[in-house]
Specification:
- The structure holds two protein chains of two kinds.
- Chain A has helices spanning 8-15, 24-33, 35-60, 65-72, 88-112, 118-124, 127-138, 153-164, 250-265; strands at 148-149, 179-187, 192-199, 205-211, 223-227, 230-237, 240-246.
- Chain A is an alpha+beta fold.
- Chain A is elongated and about 80 Å long.
- By secondary structure, chain B is mostly helical.
- Chain B is globular.
- Classes of the chains: A alpha+beta, B mainly alpha.
- The interface between A and B is large, with 66 and 60 residues.
């Protein structure tokens, strides 16, 4: 009997023991004649072995008590090590905490204003912290997250550039799935700063905070900071300080920050 | 639902969750949510059914909910898992952590199928049942997942997380 053709699915089924007994010989004949396919199958088999070897240790770990209890006795209240997600109220509470911290800083500044140079002030409310505060305050805002929306981008750019005293353009992050919502002007340590807000298809918001009041003489590379529920990447480029904030995981934020950095570098 | 049987499935649920989401605490939270939901839906459980597929199915649905949740990410961030901004060097050999990083480079749907088949040794039919997808979809995701993982491990394609999009 002429061997039947062997499909990609057959190869996987062969590896996984899902192929009917009568067809195994077909696959084996095929593999003998097709070294490239045999090589690929070998790679898949070592993937499987590597996965098992790597993750089998989890099976041998002692079960966490909370899980064992829950499996044995339903309905028993089990303390979580941490809540699975931050509810909105807790975000607001953290926001309030940050605002209070900021107000404390401002009060301190007003009290000691006569002694301070601008560097002390910048130290008092670091870039990442300022950006995180602005993020938690404005990004949950449903009705008016920005002052000028992206459909008036030209005006937005003109306005912010004028107020900041330098040309400033929001980077385009469409390729990463983030669209510009718009921007607003905020008070910084010594003058105005700009905030651009983006969101993705799921509504996840991300803000880029641009300050022009950097007085530190040297540029910095990427810095990372975690401010409550907000992750922030920030860097200094000449007089510009940039901070990208969002409640998304660090790796994903890094990816966006890299794109922002590249665009600003090559503008 | 039998608590001894449930307890017996726990180590595998934990292993799968760990491989799926990487982070240990987040993985155990997912297992915990799965157990809670399993108990709350135990009325839907038919004795004699496939407990493993049922539990993995619950976990899958919870995970989908998690991924769709628009608010804050729940995974704690470890400082050492950051790869930024550019990773230029690639070593030839498979190193510790490479496998996990490579897995993370697969789309979630492919990773789930690959892990259920290769790691959890579930039959295609069980996977289809657990994930609520046709068996043909299981097989195509499996094939694509395996091939992509092979290419990532070979260094032929960067894993999605490391790619810089301009």
């Amino acid at each position: 009997m002429k061997p039947q053709t062997v499909s990609e699915a057959d190869l996987h089924a062969y590896l996984d023991g899902e192929l009917p007994e009568g067809r195994r010989a077909d696959v084996e004949a095929y593999l003998a004649a097709q070294p490239a396919a045999a090589e690929r199958l070998k790679a898949y088999r070592s993937q499987r072995d590597a996965l098992r070897q790597h993750f089998d240790r989890v099976v041998d770990e002692p079960l966490p008590a909370r899980l064992r209890q829950l499996a044995e006795a339903p309905g028993v209240a089990v303390d979580r090590e941490k809540p699975p997600l931050l509810a909105r109220w807790s975000v607001q509470r953290i926001a309030a905490g940050l605002v209070i911290a900021l107000l404390g800083g401002v009060a301190g500044w007003l009290g000691h204003g006569q002694y301070q140079g601008s560097e002390r002030v910048a130290q008092m409310t670091p870039l990442a912290r300022q950006a995180a505060i602005a993020h938690v305050v404005y990004s949950p805002d449903v009705r008016r997250p920005v002052e000028v929306t992206a459909d008036q981008e030209d005006q937005l750019v003109k306005w912010l550039s004028k107020r900041l005293g330098t040309a400033i353009n929001p980077p385009k992050l469409g390729a990463l799935g983030y669209e510009l919502i718009g921007g607003r002007l905020l008070p910084g340590n010594t003058g105005p700063v700009a905030q651009f807000m983006y969101h993705d298809g799921s509504g996840q918001r991300l803000t880029l905070y641009v300050s022009t009041e950097n007085t530190v003489s040297h540029d910095t590379g990427f810095r990372f900071s975690r401010e409550g529920p907000v992750n922030v990447f920030y860097w200094v480029d000449g007089k510009f300080g940039y901070a990208l904030s969002a409640g998304i995981d660090k790796g994903e934020l890094a990816r966006v920050a890299t794109a922002v950095y590249d665009q600003l570098e090559h503008k | 639902m039998d608590s001894a049987a449930l307890l017996g499935e726990l180590p595998r649920l934990r292993r799968y969750a760990r491989a799926l989401v990487r982070d240990r605490a987040a993985a155990d939270d997912l297992v915990q949510d799965t157990l809670e939901r399993a108990w709350s839906r135990s009325a839907q459980w038919r004795p004699g059914g496939d407990l493993r597929a049922w539990l993995f199915g619950i976990m899958h649905n919870l995970r989908i909910d998690q991924l769709r949740r628009p608010e804050l990410a729940t995974l704690p961030i470890a400082d050492d898992d950051l790869e930024v901004p550019i990773r230029a060097t690639q070593s030839d050999r498979l190193e510790v952590g490479d496998l996990e990083a490579a897995l993370a480079g697969l789309p979630e749907e492919q990773r789930a199928v690959l892990l259920l088949v290769a790691l959890e040794e579930m039959r295609y039919e069980q996977v289809a049942h657990a994930l609520g997808i046709p068996i043909g979809t299981v097989m195509s995701r499996l094939a694509r997942g395996r091939e992509r993982l092979r290419l990532i491990l070979e260094g032929s394609v960067p894993s999605a997380k490391l790619r810089v999009v301009r």
